[in-house]
Amino acid sequence: MSREKIRDSAGQAAGRLDDFPDIADNELRTKNSLIEPFLRSLGYDTTHPEQVTLEELTDLGGKIDYVLRGETRATIAVEAKRAGLKLSDKETKQLRSYFTFSAAVAGILTNGVDYWLFTDLNKPNVMDSQPYRRIDIRSITENDLSHLTSLARQEISQDGVHHQARNERYQSRINCIVAEELATPSQEFLRLVGRKAGIKPLNKTNLAFLRPLVSTAIARSLSAQPSSAEMHQEPQTNSGAAQPKTTPCSKPGAGFKADQTKKNFEGATLFGNTLPAKNYKEVLVEVIKVLQARHSEGFDVRVKAQPFYKETRKGQYISTREQDFNRGAAKHKAGDHWVDTNLNAAWQGKARTPIPQRVRL
After folding, report:
1. Given phi > 0 = left and psi -120 to 50 = alpha, else beta, which region is 309?
2. In angstroms, rounded to a whole number, what is the distance separating the alpha carbons of residues 16 and 37?
3. HSE-up of 60 (CA within 13 Å, CB side)?
4. Rounded Cα–Cα distance for residues 346 and 178 (Å)
5. How wide is the angle at C-alpha 181 spanned by C-alphas 179 and 185, nearest 5°?
6. For 41-90, what is each residue's pLDDT tens digit?
C-alpha cells in the first residue's frame, strides 16, 4: 500500500472540507465525501460486498457503519460520525459493542478528519478503553502513515495491529519516563549512577550531593555528545605534550567537552538543505522559517491550532504578535513570526518539568 496514496487522500479530504464546509453538518455527506474515499486509499472497495459491509447489525441490536475485510479475512469495525462532531469516549459505544461480539482485530472511530484507532491489547475481544493512536488527517505524520498502512487491505492482521499498538503504547510511556528522568532524576536513577560511580554509602546526604552532579552530566550530554573518536583522542596542553587517554563515559571523574555543541548542530538539514544553525534555538528558528516559506498560505491560521497551541496553555508557541506568548517566555524572531524557544532551557538542564513535544514535523 502506497503511503503517498494515503497521504494524497488525506490532503484531498481536508481540502474538500475546506471547500464545502456544509459537509461537517451531515453524517451521510461526511461518509460519502470524506470517509469512503479515505477507506478506498487503504485498499477497500466500499462498493464490493466481500470487502466492505455497510451498517452491519451488532448482537445488541445496533448497527456498525462499516465492516472492512482484509485479504486474510481479518476485519476492522468502523464507526462514523459527522465531521462537525468532536470525538469523545461516549461515541465509542457502538464500536465497543460490535468489537466484543465479533472477530474484529481493530476498530476505528472517525468523523472523517480525526481517526481514533483501537484494538484489544488488554483482553482478547474486549476493545481497549483508549485508542492506541489518534490521527488528524490535516497534519498527518510518518508515524501516522505506519499505523494506517498496517490497516490496509493487503496488510491487515491481528499480529500486525497488536505490534503497532504495543509499540505506540510503550514508546509513549518510555518517552515520558526518559524525559522525566532527564528533567528531574529520580532516587532510583541517582542510586544507579551512584553505584556505578563508586559513591558509598548511598544515603540521603550522598544522594543530595549526587543530584546536581547528575543534572550537570545530563545537561552536558544533551548539549555536547562527543563522537567515539573524539572521546578517545589525546588532548594537548599548551606545550603540545600528549596527555593520557581518557574515556569520559567509562570512568568517574572525566568530563564532557562543552565546546562540542556547535559541532553537533553543524550539518543539520531540513528537506535536503543545510540549516545555518549552531544550537537548538537556532535550529528551531530556522525550521519555522522554512515551514513558513513552504506553507505561506494559511500558515497564520495553522499556528493558532493544535499542536502549535493548546487550550490548557495561555500563550502561543508561534505568533506574529509578541504579546501572544506566556509572560516571561523565551522568544526569538523567525521571519515574520515570533517563536517560543523556551524548550532550549530544558536541553540545558534548567527545566524542572518533562520536555514536551511542542511541534510535530
Report:
1. beta
2. 11
3. 12
4. 13
5. 150
6. 999 999 999 999 998 887 666 789 999 999 988 999 999 999 999 999 88
